[in-house]
């Protein structure tokens, strides 16, 4: 196996002491959302790609029925490889518009 001898030794030692090799609880502030809520956030954003993080934070309640921030939603989406997006606000350009803009730029480039 391509495992360091020290790693193997420590895993055997942990198995002997605790009867398991899973990670022990760590210190730090607990997450305000549960894994199920995180999965729901990701699923909602996959279904509606233009759902904003602030809208999701208003719809979702964390542990103990507390509100979660938009930054929390952004972090949860980021760990899943997603980003909260907002729809483009501006004029909708057709192919003809794009072609005309290219012609104008070429005329005025000189």
UniProtKB/TrEMBL annotation:
GO molecular function: DNA binding
Pfam families in the record: HTH_Tnp_Tc3_2
Segments forming domain Transposase Tc1-like: 38-109
Transmembrane segments: none
Biased composition (Polar residues): 51-72
Region feature Disordered, mapped onto this chain: 51-82
InterPro entries recorded: Transposase_Tc1-like
Protein name per its UniProtKB record: Transposable element Tc1 transposase
